[in-house]
């Protein structure tokens, strides 16, 4: 059996990351830096000798493009790819498209901080991280994890908060500690899993 390998990559910088806008389910493209970050992610994985059997991504183009660029570097452009809305970024609801400073001016710095950094308080019309976990984690358990446990080498390109939902389980975070878990854009995090689905080792290729 092949190793039980799961690699998570947050998409490269998007145009709205650069403009300091709440993005959520909106669909801006990558910036030139984002393209560079995604390409570098693939190059790092290639340099470490990684190859994959299957990939998953969201239905948002910034994650899909990141995956495409990484796979191009890996020479795996024909890899099977599964796209699903379950891996989409957290939905920021009424905050989507707003500049974060403008949002603070409208609702107050403390309220916006609560929406961004609390685990279970959603912004108006949007999702909390708890809601995102409730959407993303079942998909991981039913669709992604079984593939890894069967010995497939799986690459997931998605978003800061949908990946935090997976990391919460993989790294055994609490609702408090997961909010502080930063995930750099375009930086692969490599997990090797035991047969019982717990983590044997973690390698972070950030930097």
From TrEMBL:
Coiled-coil parts of chain: none
List of residues binding substrate: 10-17, 23-24, 62, 89-92, 100, 116-117, 160-161
**Catalytic reaction annotation:** (2R)-2-phosphoglycerate = (2R)-3-phosphoglycerate
**Keyword Isomerase on entry:** yes
Pathway(s) it belongs to: Carbohydrate degradation; glycolysis; pyruvate from D-glyceraldehyde 3-phosphate: step 3/5
Gene3D superfamilies per the UniProt record, alphabetical: Phosphoglycerate mutase-like
The record's section on InterPro entries has: His_Pase_superF_clade-1, His_PPase_superfam, PG/BPGM_mutase_AS, Phosphogly_mut1
Sites marked Transition state stabilizer: 159
Mention one GO biological process in which this protein takes part, according to its record.
Answer: gluconeogenesis
**What is this protein called in UniProt?**
2,3-bisphosphoglycerate-dependent phosphoglycerate mutase
Origin species:
Ancylobacter aquaticus
């Amino acid at each position: 059996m092949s190793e039980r390998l799961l690699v998570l990559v947050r998409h490269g910088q998007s145009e709205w990351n650069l403009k300091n806008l709440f993005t959520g389910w909106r669909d801006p493209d990558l910036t030139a830096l984002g393209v560079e970050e995604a390409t570098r992610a693939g190059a790092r994985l290639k340099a470490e000798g990684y190859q994959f059997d299957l990939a998953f991504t969201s239905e948002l183009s910034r994650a899909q493009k990141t995956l495409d660029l990484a796979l191009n570097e890996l020479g795996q452009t024909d890899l099977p790819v599964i796209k699903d809305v379950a891996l989409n970024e957290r939905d920021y609801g009424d905050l989507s498209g707003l500049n974060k400073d403008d949002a603070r001016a409208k609702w107050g710095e403390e309220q916006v901080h609560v929406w961004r950094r609390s685990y279970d308080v959603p912004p108006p019309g949007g999702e909390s991280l708890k809601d995102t976990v409730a959407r993303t984690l079942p998909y991981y358990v039913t669709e992604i994890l079984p593939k890894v446990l069967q010995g497939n080498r799986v690459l997931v390109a998605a978003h800061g908060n949908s990946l935090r939902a997976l990391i919460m389980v993989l790294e055994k975070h609490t609702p408090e500690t997961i909010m502080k878990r930063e995930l750099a854009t375009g930086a692969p995090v490599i997990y090797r899993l035991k047969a019982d689905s717990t983590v044997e080792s973690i390698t972070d290729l950030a930097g």
